[in-house]
Every structure is written in structure tokens, then in C-alpha cells.
Amino acid sequence: MYPHTDHQTNQPILDVKNVNVRYNGRAALEEITFHLHEGERVAVVGPNGAGKSTLFKVVAGVLQPNSGEVNIFGSKPGRHVCIAYIPQRSQVDWSFPVNVADVVMMGRSAKLGPLNFPRKKDRDFVHHALETVDLSDLASRQISQLSGGQQQRMFIARALAQEAELMLMDEPLSGLDTPSQEGILSLLDRLKKENVTVMVATHDLDQAASHFDRIMLLNHHIVAFGNPKDVLHTDNLLKAYGGKLKPVDGQNILNTDDCCDDGEDDHTH
Amino acid sequence: MTAVTTGKMTTLINLLTAPLQYEFMVRGMFAAVLVGIVCAVVGTYVVLRGMAFFGDALAHTILPGIALGYLITGGARDVLFWWALGTAIVAALGIGAISKNSQIKEDTSIGVIFAGMFALGIALISTVKSYAVDLSHFLFGDVLSVSTQSLWLIIIFGGLVLLTVFAFYKEFMTLSFDPILAATLRLPVGLLNNLLLTLIAVTVAVSLQTVGVALMVAMLVTPAATAYLLTHRLSTMMFIAVIFASLSGVIGLYLSYYLSIASGAAIVLTATFFFLMTFVGKRVK
Which of A125, A196, A207, B166 gives a 20 to 30 Å CA spacing to B83? Predict the structure, then answer.
């Protein structure tokens, strides 16, 4: 069997302590400390290159922080299969020869273990997951033929098939039209009823305020984390987004908003 | 049937069966089809993961290993398989490690090593007087000289490759489509990557006598690329690639027999023809 680990239910679903990540000497995440409650929906808001993807990868256990620790139900993420990382749509090879049901079935790989082929139970999981996200009709559709919103819902179905308890969604709403965004957001409401904990990276402050329990303002460090009305103040937003002079390795580097140096995906060491 | 059509039928049957009276043609036919099947299945992953350059480099990198075996054993063909296999596995895992830890860009470091190793191979072989003929066989293949023993090696090792691809089908699919998903599902990503590199290495060794070092990448990539144009399912893509590769092996050998052209080149040209027809056919539609 592939590595699995038990949950200590008296521990928080996610507990992050003093996490630091550096890429080539540049700080991507600084002293990140927070914890989440089960079933919570958290929006992670910050400019491009603020470290949102990096944070998700550290939480998912696919990127080792330089210092600090991450615990999922009381133990390191590296053996948990209850965490789903849902990639940005631009990171996906949509011409890969698989259909929607194939992709959702991939979520079963861990529970199946090596040398096993999908059984009825796994097909039921896939079927149920596709029903939950309203994609049953498109199960045998090639993935490039889906709309943006359908592609996003397919990945949520894959996370459901994985039996994920913590879903990390990287910019699931960007590039979608309003009805598709509404579809995803109402799906998040349904997930709350199933006690799935969700972290969503987003740019949209309005949606973050109206659809999430807490908002984390991130710009390499946590600028603010709390209820939307406490977090979304001009001071905080200026701190997270505003241009400011910030010393990095002794040099002064002008760190303006949307600086677009989103190089965080290239260096997974 | 009229006498004329009967006559035509007989001619066609004669054309098809005439080469098969030679045992080396039958063995060659078997080898070409088996190698085609293995290359097509493994090549599916080579195409989907954008590893064509890696496959080409790997095939060229094993030349010094073959050359060494050739010098030590005094030109015996059957043992060269083992030299090819050993070098291919070492080279595949070596290139894999380099591309992970390299300071310079992956394709550059692979390019440097592959050309250097290839030159070393040619240098070694050129120390033998009659090297031109043997070198051309290593480079372009010599399927008609496949012995019964070599055929067995192709069957056994090709079979092992197919069995492994089948056993880890869902793992390789998940890893190729979404490496981060594979990591969050705690699949042994490093192990699976190295296993895939090893499978490509074994495939290269198995195919050496059929298409040779220089044409290897065509067998890995062309049938799989043709299949990629025609389907949206991974398993179907493998199946279609196998059909094209087998057909290319058989048709290529007939062309080689009747037109007196090099067998490896004939097989690759047939596969390329199928690809171009499919490509154009898709465009016209």
C-alpha cells in the first residue's frame, strides 16, 4: 500500500507554525503561522507572486519548507492522502488523452494501492463525485472540450473521489464568467455541509468577503487573517497590495503590486 | 472469378509469401512487429511527456557501451544485447539524475553528454579495421540478421516492459497528467519516474537490432504521435499506436525486400508515411 496515516481527531485539520520558504535566496514565505478549523472556508488573497501557490504546496506536503512545520491532524502532511491540491487551469495539459471520468478516477489511485484496478466501489465514488458537481452527462467528454467552469468542477470531483478533507484551490475563479464563478461558489457551500475544509486563492475581494468564513491577506507574510469585516481595511490592503520599499538580502528592491514574478512554480526543490 | 483476377490474386499471394520462404525474413518480421509493439506502448508516454529528445539522446548514448562489447567479444552480435541493456539503464538513470540537478538547462546538458558519448562510441568502433559495415548496423539496424536467440531476448524483455506498463497503468497515467496530484496521493513519484526511464532504456536495448541507434526515436515517437492525432483516450492511443507500429514493421520489411533498401529505414519511412497521411487527413477533414 502507498503511505497512509491516521488522524488524531483532537488536533486541528491544519496547523502551520513558523514556515519559511526561500527561492534562490529570495523569501517566498516568511514566518507563516495559522491554523484552520474543520469545515472552514478560507480565502487566501494577495498580489501575484505573494506566495499563495507556494503556501498551498507546502501545506499539501509536495514542497518542503526551509524551516517551520506543517501538521495535518497532528502529523506531517507527507503521508496524508486527505489533501487535494487543485491546480490553476493554465498549469494543466488539456490535450492529454483522457476523458472526465478518467481524471476523476485518478483521485482513487492512492486508495486503490499498487497493482489494483478500479472496482465497483471506485466507480461508484467517481459516479457520485460527478453527480455532486453536475458533470454526470459529460463523463466521457475529452477534457479539452469542457468550459473553464466545467474543468474546475471536474477537479473538485477528482478531489471528492480522493475523499479529500482539505481542498486547496489555486485561483479556481480566475478566467471564469460570472455564472461559472457562481456555480463554483455554490459548490463550495455544498462542500461545507460535507465538512470539507477549503482554502481558495483568489483575487476577488468582493467574493472573498461574501463567500468565505475567513480571509487571509498574504504578501510573503500574513498581513492579516480573520473575519472579512476585520481584515478588509484600507491599511491592511495597502500593506498587502501597495507599493513599498522592502529590503531583501541587504538590497533595496522596489516591491510593487502585481509584480508578476510568479517564478514559484519552477523551483520545486 | 475470372481467370484474370485469379491470376492477379495468385501474383499477390506470391508477392506476399515469396519473402517468407527465407527463415531470416520470418524472424525479421517477428522481431519488427514485437519491437514495434513495445516501442509504441512505451512511446505513448514518451510523446505525452515530451521526452522525444531524451529518447533520441538515450539511444545515441548507448553506442560506446555497444562498442565496448563489440571490441571485447570480437564482434559477436548476440551478446551485444546485454551490453546495450546495461549501458541504456545506466545512461537513462544518469540522464534522469543530471536533468534533475543540473545548473544549466536540461536539454543543453543532455545534448552535451549525448554527443560526447556518441563520439566516444564511434571512436571506439573505428579502432577496428572493418568498422564501416558494423557501425552502420549499429546506427541503422539490421533486422534480417536477428537470430533465434535474439528473438527470444526481444520476447522476454519486451514482454517484461509491456507487463510493467500494464501493472502501473494508473500510476503512470496519473504521474504523466498531473505530477502534483501523484505527489499528494503519496505515490512514489521518484521511483515511478525512474521506472519509466528504465522501461525506455530496456525498449531501446530491445529495439537496437531492428532500427539501430539513429532511427530509434522514430519508433518511439512516430506511431504514438500518429495515434495521438486519432483518439482522446490513453488506452486507445496505445492500441492504435501498436497497430501502426506493427503495420510499419511488416510493410517496411516487404518494401525492404522488393526495393532492396535498408530494413530499418524502410520501417521508419512506412511509419512516417502513416503519420503524414493521418496528419493531412485530419487537416482536410
Answer: B166
How close, in Å, is residue A87 to chain B by CA atoms? 8
How do the domains of chain B map onto residue ranges? 38-217
Q: B173, A102: Cβ pair inside 8 Å?
A: yes
Pick the CATH number of B38-217 from 1.10.3470.10, 3.40.50.1100, 1.20.950.20, 1.10.443.10: 1.10.3470.10
- Quick: pLDDT tens for B49-93: 999 999 999 999 999 999 998 888 876 777 888 999 999 999 998
Out of B177, B183, B232, name the one closest to residue A142 (CB).
Answer: B232
In order, the DSSP letters of B93-104 are HHHHHHHHH-SS
Whether the pLDDT of residue A64 is over 60: the answer is yes
Backbone angles phi, psi at A197, to 5 degrees: -90, 135
Is the model's pLDDT at A222 over the cut of 80? yes
Q: Nearest residue of A to residue B47 by CA position?
A: A96
Average pLDDT, chain A: 85
What is the C-alpha to C-alpha distance for residues B246 and B15, in angstroms, rounded to an integer?
Answer: 19
Whole-angstrom Cα distance, residue B190 to residue B192? 6
More confident residue, A94 or A232: A94
Query: What class has domain A81-216?
Result: alpha beta
Q: Where are the domains of chain A?
A: 11-27+62-79+234-269, 81-216
Interface contact flag, A62 B232, Cβ < 8 Å: no
